[in-house]
Specification:
The chain is mainly α. It has 4 helices and no strands.
Length: about 80
């Protein structure tokens, strides 16, 4: 799910129509910096956009498909209550 969300973010923020591998790379960079906040010196980061989004038009870039993926990834009802006990 993170790769799909990252593809959407890349497209919305930068206009980059990237594929799943690129989305995975971007998600990894975002996750890294979420855990390791830079101090006064911000490092320079580069990542490669290894694929294009055209092959993913009917999946990653299809809102209906993304909604179905989110529904499948959601924990079943009641799981939160079981985990809390």
């Amino acid at each position: 799910m993170r790769a799909v969300e990252a593809c959407g973010a890349l497209f919305a923020k930068y206009g980059v129509y990237a594929g799943g591998s690129t989305g995975s790379s971007y998600a990894a960079v975002q996750d890294y910096f979420a855990r390791h906040r830079p101090g006064a010196h911000r490092p320079r980061v580069a990542f490669l956009a290894a694929d294009r989004g055209h092959a993913y038009a009917r999946t990653v870039y299809d809102p209906t498909w993304v909604q179905q993926l989110r529904a499948e990834a959601a924990p079943p009802a009641g799981v939160e209550a079981l985990a809390a006990n």
